[in-house]
Amino acid sequence: MTTAADNPTTPDREAERFVLLVDAAPLEPMLRRVPHCRVTAAADFHDAIGELHAWLVRTGSSDAPQPVVIAPRSRLDDGEPNRITQALRRVHHDVRIIALSNGADTSDDTSVVPEDIEAVIDPSITQDALAELLDRPPASPPPQPDQPEPGAGESRSREREDDAATTMIDGLGDEGLLGLMMTDPRCVPDAALKLLRRRTGIDDLRFLTSVDAAPDELCRTVVDVVHQGRAVGQLVTDHDAQRVLIPWSSWLARWIVAAEQMLDLRTDAFTDELTGAWNRRYFVRFMDRAIVEAGEYRRALTVMLLDVDDLKTYNDAYGHAAGDDVLVETVRLLKSVIRPGDRVCRIGGDEFAVVFYDPQGPRTPTSQHPRTVELIAARFQEQIARCRFPKLGDDAPGPLTISGGLATYPWDGLDTESLVRRADDRAMQAKRRGKNAIVFGPQHT
User: Sheet harboring 96-100: ordered strands across?
Assistant: First the structure.
């Protein structure tokens, strides 16, 4: 078997080109066909900074090709020259920035390259020309924002303290953290620490939480990170930098606590309060992103829509508390049979969606994804039929049953709406067959 390591012309996933489109939707279909490109779309530069920072935190940049940002020239020329490009380069100083011309405007000359932008391209550019541009190294290194001088310690402490008020409200660096807060708040603490190292020039600066090991005895500086009386952790370094780090500790504490609060808010926003399953809002967002990734990496994705047969009977006979108990137990059983990458969502009163998607699973055409999903669905159907509900008492009207239908990408649809519609049609077929059935598509037979 030939692997990426054996064949230097086949880059591994870490070597993919990260291309970030900002309000440049016309290029997205073409870019997704360019080999070895991971394409992410952003609605504006605020989101773009967050996506770029998230990519940097996830993958690092030492061995990866330079990330590329493509945006309309009109968005880059917003009346404040270099402001946007400098903000992007505060996140990744080697980011390549390419402008997309209006195309219809003859005054938007693609031969005139604005300062701080690598190239201007026309919307009619061909896929081959675009791929060649991405693979071609920049003609000259891009300008970089001001960076702190190398070295750390007491020799720079007074200068840093004097400039603390100005630096701590540096909108460019904090804007990147804010964007990351909106896209992946879990990455904010690490990103904030990296930004703090850059701002102070203390390369060995570390952050220890209460669950981490105690600071090494050789550490010359240990600064408590506290927010409103709550100990968040400690900043430690082998340099003598107490005076430098004390004002920064509250800055870091605020970002860490804000990230925790954002995670809590996101959990509340995307979780069904009764059952603990993901809700409809999360289902749609997860499906949209998972389908894009499934197409990019040739993976199968299946959605199963199901509901509890005759739940109204339970509600009418035993009260809504008993019906709620049925819904809670349904989610518990679903979670007990799915794989780590799968998702259980409550998308209606008694309607659930299960997304079967295993990013670590096999990617070959002979993958056993459909068969695995069928086995999981059958196992759940058996368990729900054997389940007993204390709130229903001894007079419960027989075993609980469910009816559902499954649809699989790409056979049954190429987007969320198509897959849901096909799965719903099959769930209705199950109802017409007398309920207590799960209808599969032809790829499962």
Answer: 37-42, 17-22, 68-72, 96-100, 119-121
CA distances from 440 to 100, 118, 309 (A): 45, 51, 18
| Nearest-angstrom CA–CA distance, 187 and 194 | 11
Give the C-alpha distances (Å, rounded to integers) separating 391 from 12, 136, 382, 383.
54, 68, 21, 18
Q: How far apart are CA 67 and CA 40, in angstroms?
A: 11
**Domains in the chain, CATH or no CATH each:** 15-135 (3.40.50.2300), 173-269 (no CATH), 278-444 (3.30.70.270)
299-339 pLDDT tens trace: 889 999 998 887 887 777 778 888 888 888 888 888 888 88
* Confidence (pLDDT) at 156: 40
Q: For residues 371 and 171, what is the distance between their CA atoms, to the nearest angstrom?
A: 52
Amino acid symbol at 215: P
276 backbone φψ class: left, alpha, beta (φ>0; ψ -120 to 50)? left
Label residue 421 by pLDDT band (50, 70, 90): very high
pLDDT in tens, 139-184: 554 444 333 333 333 334 334 333 332 333 344 467 677 777 777 7
Q: What is the pTM of this model?
A: 0.53
